[in-house]
Protein 1
Amino acid sequence: MGSDTAERDVTENEQVGDGQVEDTRRPAYGPGRVLIFVYGVFAVSATARASVQLIRNAAEAPLAYSLSAVSAVVYAVATVALAHNGRRMRRVAWVAVTFELVGVITVGILSSTHPELFQHDSVWSRFGAGYGYVPAVLPVLGLFWMWRSSPARIAQT
């Protein structure tokens, strides 16, 4: 995206009540849409996996299955937050994606060093090996995209 377009996107805001500015830019385009789509797919797949695991065998591996449910919630929140342009939703996205990265790293390390805690895999076990390591790469891409598309950063360039 050219800098002229970026500057125009940042400045194309409308004044709303109380001196606040409403952001009228499109929520996401290009790589952002792909990222949001992948987050949506993971939200649905993690929700389905956690639901089946918790309904069928919750007592078998409560930690792993609970972590799958947590990851499903994180993916759903990140999907919705990434799809919006508002300042608050952008903050929610930063928190959700950062939490996801910390979760993947923590669960990945624990599932590798203490496999007895994870008799069954969760979405984030072994750094997301069951999902082709996409859970380990996705938050890095999400954080990079949010930094790259930040209205404040674009306005400074």
Protein 2
Amino acid sequence: MLNVNRLKDLEVLKDRVYRSLRDAISSLDVYDPGVDLHLDERTLAEQLGVSRTPIRESLIRLENEGFVKTIPHKGAFVVRRSLDQIIDMVHVWAALESMAARLTTQRATDFEISKLRTLFSTYDGSKCEAQINEYSETNIEFHRTIIELSRCQALVDIAENLFLQLKSIRLRSITDPARAEHSIIDHIHIIEALEKRDANGAEMLVRNHTLRLAEHIEQHWNFSSSE
């Protein structure tokens, strides 16, 4: 069942309902075969404490953005993409984030880049397995921060929807301790390139890091889409 939080006030209700559903969907382990992908309007309305109208409007909006699919006579379901679709999305992300890394070397301050290093100050690859859940969130924050530090609003806007669709994929892929350890090493090398203002190096390291995610998915994932 989707885990959503009850709304505390009615300010800009439809937008708050939309954001609540979108955030809950992006945090769902969509690729776990045991997860129920069905979105029941009545249940969601009860959980959020609203009528079904803003729920229905939000589901339409989420469908237009690729998070939800409505099947006639069955209802709305969270989209579980095919392997080929996931790989395509990761490749697009590699292009976006690598350009963001290049721009970050040119536009971010030393202090802003230094905050990336503090994200990993408590992590040791040999201890990663015990901290895997915490590291998963740090990993997400790292990639989102690089996009933001690019100071390119057009890139940020384009990346946001894709980032949310990839969130559950990143969270699932990082549960392998060996991959988490390699991920930490990659991130440190990326930070070093950013600190040196090495635009070419940072761009290449970020792109290769993300392409390795695509390779990992191709080699280790085995699932069917909901389509």
Protein 3
Amino acid sequence: MLEQTGGAAAPEKSRNQHHALQVETRMRVELKDITSQIARLVERSGIESGQCHIFVPHTTAAILINENYDPGLRKDIENFLKKLAPVSPDYQHNDGNCDAHLKAAIIGVSKTLLIEHGQLVLGRWQGIYFCEFDGPRQRNLRVKLVAD
């Protein structure tokens, strides 16, 4: 995952920050754990209290927060979404990726997390996933860190 930081100089501590990340996916459907990359951005930011906004500017990709302990859950999520939005030639939007649009719409393209004590706030088993539904592709991800 490549990172570009907004602004001319290195970000100052405890200020609002914008980051542009690139995510490379290797499969048509892939749930890629990006928790450590996002946590690193928060830790390096110097922000003690605030919010972390994550946004995917794509219509066939999404952001998910869920358990990241058991890797079998990723496959269960993929199978569940496949049942909800199967690959099918019967969609009105029939360019071969309508299922990907529907899956992204169900999961959502953005999430907001809290920052407390200079750390990303997640539950014990929670992780952040970049969800690819129309890969493989080179994708963009935007992260905005906002201090209270």
